[in-house]
Write a structure and sequence with these properties.
mainly alpha; 73 residues; 3 helices
């Protein structure tokens, strides 16, 4: 059995757009374009992260990001 990756990604993107739009309007009646785009982007990635395992450790990635920020200062 082989998954249909394109179909799964299309579902993730479609659901992410729908959820992102609703989240963008959750706390304000008139979000700006940047707020809408960010909410949609976040929601799409959440959908993708639910369907795919990228073999990563989120805690380690956050720690690496914080270390990088400290070093760049």
């Amino acid at each position: 059995m082989k998954p249909r990756i394109r179909t799964i990604l299309e579902d993730c993107i479609s659901n992410g757009i729908e959820h992102g739009l609703s989240r963008a309007y959750k706390h304000t009646d008139s979000p700006n374009d940047a707020q809408i785009a960010l909410a949609i982007d976040d929601a799409i990635w959440l959908e993708i992260d639910e369907k795919f395992d990228f073999g990563r450790n989120l805690v380690e990635e956050i720690a690496e990001g914080l270390d990088y920020l400290k070093e760049s200062r």
